[in-house]
Each structure stands twice: as structure tokens, then as C-alpha cells.
Hints:
It contains 20 helices and eight strands. By secondary structure, the chain is an alpha/beta fold. It has three domains: 4-104, Fumarate Reductase Iron-sulfur Protein, Chain B, domain 2 (Orthogonal Bundle), CATH 1.10.1060; 119-269, Rossmann fold (3-Layer(aba) Sandwich), CATH 3.40.50; 275-397, Glutathione S-transferase Yfyf (Class Pi), Chain A, domain 2 (Up-down Bundle), CATH 1.20.1050. Helix 13 links the parallel strand 3 (231-234) and strand 4. Helix 10 (174-186) crosses helix 20 and helix 14 packs across helix 15. The radius of gyration is 21 Å and the shape is globular. The chain starts with 8 loop residues before the first helix and ends with a helix.
Amino acid sequence: MTPVGMLDPTLREFVNAQSEQLINRCFACSKCTAGCPIARVADLRPAQLLRLVQFGLTDALLNNPALWRCLGCDLCGSRCPNDVHIGTMLAAVRKLAWQESSFSDPALVQGLERLTALKDNIERVHNITGDDNANRLLWAQNLDQAPEGLEHKSGAEIVYFVGCVSSLFPQSYRIPQAMTQVLMGTGAKFTALGGEEWCCGYPLIAAGLGERAQKLAAHNVKSIQEIGARELVTTCPSCFHMWKHKYPELLGAPLPFEVKHSTEFLQGLLSDGALRLNPFKGTVTFHDPCDLCRKSDVFDAPRAVLDAIPGVRFVEMTNYGKNALCCGGGGNLETFDPSLVAQVSAERLNDAMGTGASIIVSACQQCERTLTSATRKHEAARKARVKVMDIVELVSQQLAN
């Protein structure tokens, strides 16, 4: 293994700077480990990772699979009394790890091979699956009434950025279908990018390859500008986080249009009276997606949308808002070590089951996938017929004629 000192000196300086900051601010209280979803199911202790970096043992961390099992959920930073965010430090170490030429741990080698394939897919065909990027609108074929000009319509006021998972995973097709029904119901002039939509770049950021996301960001922003849209809406929290917070950093300039998550967009429509909803009878709970709540500070919008549905009974989980547990679908964990995802999602499902809700509502296609899979394996959830839905699906279902 190449000694860390021989790697990129700029990166090494950044890691050292992170180390100094952590030494000054970390009180070794281990609240980060106590809250970590992965620490409950695998050999990952955020406090130990901090110690390795603090004492200059970064090279030991480079050959440790735990480095890649972090979900990037930032629950550690949320619970830290001194605002230490371990994910920032790990991203720098992951960047160092890509410069390694040799790894000895078999699990690490296998996981990095899968991450390399993911990276290659994004750079080669601009999506996470490796499919033909022209297939991004296949979900629209099942719409009862497809809107005219759904792909790259010049002059549209709103662009719906669908994201890789909702575009290319059939299980998630119902989310863009529902969002399209809502947009059509408002009479909005909207379009999608279709084959011109490239991966937002979030998986590269999570993998410590953030600089490679700049090309994707530049292309996507240019595509919106060519259409002349004033607003971009996305149902994916990771895409939203990239557009809202990372793209201005990557491109060095603010975006010339507004960026909204679907929950913020729906909240606006309901407040303006642009949507009317039929009554809903039942109890629901809401799962906060990590990239939407902790990382983007969007807590109130989804709850305002649920409150606007007549008759709905909303019950919070024990862990919600900034304390919400991750579903297990973040941080490229599904790619690096898919065996751990089910264990993490089972923990979150247990929290949801404690509310007595028959529907777990989220606002993320990945959360819906992982939690739905968990309900199929959970005997009590199967007996209670607990259902997982995206908030856009629930709103679309309740649209008044």
C-alpha cells in the first residue's frame, strides 16, 4: 500500500486541517457512535474513525471497509454537541483512497470494484445503471394522458428533474408519474430533460470524487438555461441537495433559476389554492430523508402538505426531523455493501411501526424503495398491511376533479 505521505499533498493538507479542527472540537463523548445507524449493525464506529485521523493514522483508515460503509446521513453531526461533521473528513479520506494502487481487504476490493463500475456508468452514459440515457422517460409510457412536449420543451416555465432512480428503476416509476399528474392538474407549463438529463453527480460526491461532478453540473444547468425555465423542481432529495447547495459551489456562481424540492412546490400550490384534495381516512407517519432534512433543512414543507390533506391523522415517529434515522439507502452503501441496507432499514421500520400508522410517507424514491423492501420482510408490517408511499403519490391519489 502506498504510504499516505506520498499521496496528493493538497489532499493530505486538507485531512490534516480536518484533524486539527477535530482535535480542538471533539470531546470524545461518542454521541456520534451512539446515533450512527451503521454502528448498530456493522463494524463502524465514527468515534474510532475520528481517532485514527486525529492521531495521524489515516493510512490505516484507507484500507478499512468501514470508510465506505458510512451512509453520509450526518446524524453524527446533528447529535454532536460541538457541531463536528465526520462526513466532511471521510469524504477527503475517500478521495485519498482512490489514489491507492493496492488494497488487501477482500471486502474492500469487491466494494470498490462496484463503486468503480458506478463511477464509470455515470461518466460514460450519465446515469447510475449504465442503461441508454435515452430511456429516462420510459415511465411516461404508462401515463393515462401524457403531456405534450414532455421532453426538453423550449419556453417551459418549470423543469421537472426526475433523477436516475425514478427514471430508470421501474419500482420507482410511480413517483414521476404522480408528479406529472400533479403538474398537469395545475395547468403549469412544464417539461423534463429526458435524455439530456444527466446524473446530478451526488453519487460521485458521496464517493469522494466531487471534482468529477462539475461536468455534470455544467451540462445540467446549461440544459435548463436553453429551455428558459424560471424554476426547477425535483422529487429526489439528493438531486435537490446537489442543485440547491453543491452546484453553486461547483460552478462558482448562483443558479439563474429557483430550485425547489417537490414538498416545497406542493406546499406552495396548496397555500395558493391551486390544488384541491379529497379527504383521506387513515393514519400516516412521515420519514424524513437525510438529504432533505438534516442536509437541506427542509422539515416543515412535507408536514404542511400532509396537514393540508382533509381527514388525515398524522403521527410523528420517535426519531424525526434532525434526529430521524436513515433508511439505509444513502452514501452509496447499496453499491458498496448491499447486505447492510436491509438491516438499517429494519431499524427505521421498527420506529415507524411504533406509530400505529398504516402508511409510511416519505419524500425520496430511495427511501421508498428501501422501506418497502423492509415491510415485505417484517412479519408485523405484512400482517398490518403497512404501505410505503412518496408524498407526491399520496397527493396525486387525493386530487379532486
